[in-house]
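In this supplementary section we document a worked example of the pipeline. Step one takes a protein sequence of length 334 as its only input; no multiple sequence alignment statistics are reported here. Step two produces a three-dimensional model, which step three serialises into structure tokens for compact storage. The input and output of this example are shown verbatim.
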Amino acid sequence: MMNTSCPHVSFEFTGRFLPPVYFLVFTIGLVANGWGLKSLLQKWRKLKIINVFVLNLGLADILYLLTLPFLMVYYFMKRKWIFGDAFCKITRFCFNLNLYGSIGFLTCISVFRYLAIVQPVRMMGRLTVTHSVAISIMVWLLVSVQSLPDIFYTKTFGNTTGKCYDTTHKKYVEDYLKYSFGWTLTGFCLPFLITLGCYGHVIVILCHKNTIDKVQKQRSLKLLFILIVLFIVCYIPYHVLKNLNLFSRVLSNQQVCYDWFNGVYIAHQISRGLVCLNSALNPLVYLHGNEDISSHLRQLLQRACQMFRHPPPTDSGSVPMSEITDDVKNVFFQ
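The serialised model returned by step three reads:
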């Protein structure tokens, strides 16, 4: 329903909601990504094609996670940015690199899995680690080119507002909406359709071919489930609500106001919290792609279950604490 005056928008919700989410993502994401990257780098010479994409996925996450402490300070200070205009733009640029870099590398992983299952003979020996490195460089370049125009939009408005906008000032929001819509189509919708097409065909192949190894089927279906969770929870709500919120701001500038503006704003802030969760959820790809990590975790869980079922005796026959400690180290630092 249209009103003569715009409804009050609950800007204070952002300051209450985002800092705890950022702290949780920063803590879990830094530990999980650091562990995953370390396990990959320790076996650099045996790095497989798909692990090159996983490695770049982790680097994109680390890049964004390092900016979260500054954003936490920003929201704790009630949206007062004290780190300067240039660093505000760098912070927002890192977020975009992480978001669209993650989508890009997940798409590369999906295409590689598709070729490995649907065209295994034709692709054998044609795709090398060198090719995956070159493709990764191209992804970084494309994402940077897509994200670069965002830097030229006003983020702090000359420090007169004290804010660090994740989009831009209301003065330029109409132009930003057009840019954001095009960005959504090329940076999200197109990769999403490619991923959907790849795994849709993979499911058909897995269901109709009995010659494919059962373990490979399970691994492919697990990866498909991880990607579905990432897209449904993190990426789809953010892009839909971001553009809808920008549209509401354009209408507000034109003195066209509706009761749903506040609800869209709050939903968009929740989607911002969800989209940053991708930096904490992406390590699931490490767990799926690295057999050594999975086997270490299974061994640790089995040992823990045995200890609870059959507590070790307190005499000299007990398991030394140093041995248990070594097992834990093997899981988290190998």
